[in-house]
Amino acid sequence: MGMKLGLHYWTYSTPGDVRSIAPTLERSAWLADQAGFASFTVMDHYFQMEQQGEATEPMLEGYTALGYVAGHTSRATLGLMVTGVMYRYPGLLAKIVTTLDVLSEGRARLGIGASWYEREQRALGVPVVPVAERFERLEETIQICQQMWSDNDGPYQGKHYQLAETICSPAPITRPHPPILIGGGGEQKTLRLVAKYGDACNLFATTPDDIAHKLDVLRTHCTNEGTDYDRITKTALATVDPLDDPDGFAAAAEQYAKLGITELGVMPNPGQNPVEFTEKVAQQVLPRLSAIG
């Protein structure tokens, strides 16, 4: 079966000219798609994350970028890692993801989380609400997307959102609906939501021990929710550059695979050209991962 690889495209700063952003994005996505990367993700940010660079570095709106990528790829699953719950009204978010799914011919995934980057929210006028409320809104948003993607066109009445009708035409091509990936490793709230609603989770691949612990927590939540733990796709985002030590990366991937992780996301380092990164990972890392299992 092998370990699947996802390309996480998080920076638009290299190469430096704004006119190179589109061709670099297109070429990286096309190469990843051709080489057999299982997924292609971008961030749902409007400013670059301050722990990775300057807020003023180039950043594109995620779903528009994925719409562009959809036209240049044919196989990879496309999604945000992860949609910030406060950035779009839930009914509209369901339509946005449906649009991506229809235009990519059934390759969309809804990655979603509670959103955390308050600087960009305050800067651009996005409501900043307490964390507890963000998680309430996250749960309602998932419920709304599930209803929009069902045969139920009726109203939705929540604490934070009220929809008079949940018509979604066309329906997504992906049946029964685009997979809902809930991102984050929060043990009290996030992993409970994964157990209750998620088709997939996404964790940080810090160490195998850490991942094993998070998956144990998820398994407990699944037992409490009456959910089949094995039904949930487990994905993780690598925190190391796979090109530094491809053999070591493959060895770690094998350990993650034994724990049940089926897809690892990789991302270029700051300043690394994404096209070169994608080419080298395809040559040096993908073949080693296909041998796993």
TrEMBL record:
Q: Give any single GO term for biological process.
A: alkanesulfonate catabolic process
The record, for Pfam families, names:
Bac_luciferase
| Superkingdom of the organism of origin | Bacteria
Luciferase-like domain ranges (all copies): 25-256
Which is an annotated GO molecular function term of this record?
A: alkanesulfonate monooxygenase activity
Gene3D superfamilies in UniProt: Luciferase-like domain
Q: Does the record's keyword annotation contain Flavoprotein?
A: yes
Q: Is the Oxidoreductase keyword given for this protein?
A: yes
Q: Which SUPFAM superfamilies match?
A: Bacterial luciferase-like
Q: Which UniProt keywords apply?
A: Flavoprotein, FMN, Monooxygenase, Oxidoreductase
Protein name as catalogued: LLM class F420-dependent oxidoreductase
Q: Which organism is it from?
A: Actinocatenispora sera
What would be the name of the gene that encodes this protein? ssuD_1
